[in-house]
From TrEMBL:
Its main location: cytoplasm. Keywords: Cytoplasm, Iron, Metal-binding, Oxidoreductase. It comes from Streptomyces noboritoensis. Transmembrane segments: none annotated. It is found in: Cytoplasm. This is Inositol oxygenase family protein. It comes from the Bacteria.
Length: 190
């Protein structure tokens, strides 16, 4: 599958997610301590534990960093790239949450200045616009998806544990199929 294209089916999206094994958030592997595959699984797992009925939030956690795979080295644009890639298949809410996981980091840096970020998140914060201004933070807080985006961000920050076993990618296929079917995206799945 061409990594620059949008997945048209759950099968194609699963191929992308499997391709995250041994793919990293930085091309030189100097970033987070786990690959994109393990990070996706850990983030989605944490969201499943804390929000078991919100399948779209869980799936947003699974796919939120696909932009790093689609265009390596694009820290500032990775969320937008991932959101654009999954919107046709997984719907507007999943795409919105994926897009908001970067502004959520900027918001948390503004309202919780003592919050610890991973060294890589600290570094990319600058490339992603830095700490929100008070006006930006007020506007973000009014977004109807702000709370869910913050929940995703917190799971994103926590989902970087080397060696943590949270299942396998295939465990998520039924949830992806469910979310895709709600948005008409599952109709093309082989």
């Amino acid at each position: 599958m061409d990594l620059s294209s949008r997945p048209r089916s759950v099968a194609e999206l699963m191929d992308l997610l499997h391709a995250c094994r041994d793919a990293w958030d930085t091309p030189d592997r100097s970033g987070d301590p786990v690959d994109l595959h393990d990070h996706a699984l850990q983030t989605a797992h944490l969201l499943r534990r804390t929000h078991p009925s919100d399948k779209e939030l869980q799936i947003a956690g699974l796919v939120h960093d696909l932009g790093h795979l689609l265009r390596p080295g694009d820290d500032a644009g990775h969320a937008d790239r991932a959101a654009d890639a999954v919107r046709p298949l997984l719907g507007a809410r999943v795409a919105r949450l994926v897009r908001l996981h970067v502004p959520a980091k900027r918001y948390l840096a503004a309202v919780e200045p003592d919050r610890t970020l991973s060294p890589q998140s600290e570094l990319t914060l600058r490339a992603q616009g830095g700490v929100m201004t008070p006006e930006e933070a007020d506007a973000f807080a009014l977004d109807p998806e702000a709370e869910a985006a913050l929940t995703l961000r917190q799971a994103d920050d926590a989902g970087k544990v080397v060696g943590l076993d949270v299942g396998v990618m295939e465990d998520w296929r039924p949830v992806l199929e469910l979310v895709a079917a709600r948005h008409g995206g599952g109709a093309y799945d082989a």
